[in-house]
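#onboarding

Welcome to the new folks! Below is a worked example of what a typical request in this channel looks like: someone posts a single protein sequence, and someone else replies with the predicted structure as tokens. Don't worry about understanding the tokens yet, we'll cover that in week two.

Example request:
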Amino acid sequence: YADANTLNFVRPGLVLKVTKASIASDGTITATILATDKQGLALDRLGVQTPGALSISCVAAYIPQGQKQYVAYTTRVQTSPITNKSATQAGTDSGGKWAGPAADGSYTYTFGTKAPTNFDTNATHTVGCQASRTLTDFDLGTNYATSLFNFVPSGAPVTTVREVIKNQSCNKCHDDLAFHGGSRRGLEYCILCHTPQTTEPATGNTVDMKVMIHKIHMGSQLPSVLAKGTYK
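Example response:
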């Protein structure tokens, strides 16, 4: 247990909030992000002015009109170390730039990935960010948080969202739905990458959330398993 003086100095905890997002006409995606401790003190991203450096990664995706699932702008080509096969996967952005902090302590992140110039300005778009605050120097572990921001680039109200299963339902068993080392938290965030466009390169199997979750949770009851099929 940390003593009271250490706790009062470090003020552990992490609250993340994406407060604004937009896409310019040339496809440039930007997001305004505020990270605070649990008492509301804005945190220094580099960990100089406040204890604990932050690592923040973001995903940008949209729901095509007339469809129900996300398509991510931020993708990568992943190669399997087992088979050397490659596949395109949705993932976090790379090559972006940070600016700030602003007067309120928030930062602006400009994505390295751009939306295509013909992106649909009337479709629901979502920027999701994950953050970790490293406090291991104080023996206080690592804090994690995620945040999402829905918007329509044209300025119209958001009327289309994807909310099939609420995160609270998952947490009845998982108690805090978190994967990939614990940094990715919440079903709402998971579905930005676990889309039909994402496959596992070694097997070619989809990791689309609706397929993957049913495969994992239904197990031996699945018709495909009864037919001697496998899912890896």
